[in-house]
Amino acid sequence: MRGAGFRRLAAIAFLLAAPPGAAQERPALLVTLPPRDSVGEVGPLVRASHVLDDRRIRELMDHGFPARLHYRVELWTTGGLFNRMLRAVEWDLGVRYDPMGRTFEAVRVTGDSVSSLGVFRDYTSAAAEVERAYRPVFRPPPSGARLYYNVTLTLEMMSVGDLDELVRWVRGDLGPAVRGQRNPGTALGRGARTLVSRLLGGERRTLEARSPRFTVPVPDR
User: How would DSSP label each residue in the chain?
Assistant: First the structure.
């Protein structure tokens, strides 16, 4: 087991030292407001693009390290001397490669629930599913206020220990988490300073986007 671990780390170090490939599309994070007639009823539409295109991320996943994408959407109000955050919503996406089945598996973690996003035969299909637009659930914002959404996305590779826990989720342990018997967010929430992230340069990769400002219409009396 120890020898296999050293071989894995050596392979990862070699991959990360390899020269970059051809130019790729830059990762982007998009936030779109709902239609004006429903701006006070539903949250924004959040979508990432090209965040999993990096060759090094793909190669790390091929060697058994899942990717974790952490989203945070904040609702801010403007006016007065300072802007003020009213509320925030967070969720995680996890993606891993199963070398036995030669498939990619993806899950979404929201609060105390885990939902499977599916099993995919190729990396491109898994990345497309993970980057699919998603509308988080938000409580209606106050009417008449001047508002905007600020969205951050943090991408990091998970640790080997986190990998083991994620495998248990997607291999049949989703039920207890969904029923609230344990918190599935613990593993996805603690891998910030792992060996792999240090090999990637000591920092997590973060994207940020802000919506246009908007006002929730005041209901007619």
Answer: -HHHHHHHHHHHHHHHHSPP-S--PPPEEEEEPPPGGGTTTS--EEEEESTT--HHHHHHHHTT--EEEEEEEEEEE--SSS-EEEEEEEEEEEEEEETTTTEEEEEEEETTEEEEEEEESSHHHHHHHHTS-B----PPPPTT-EEEEEEEEEEEEPPHHHHHHHHHIIIIIHHHHHTTSS-THHHHTS-TT-HHHHHTTSS-EEEEEEPPPEEPPPPP-
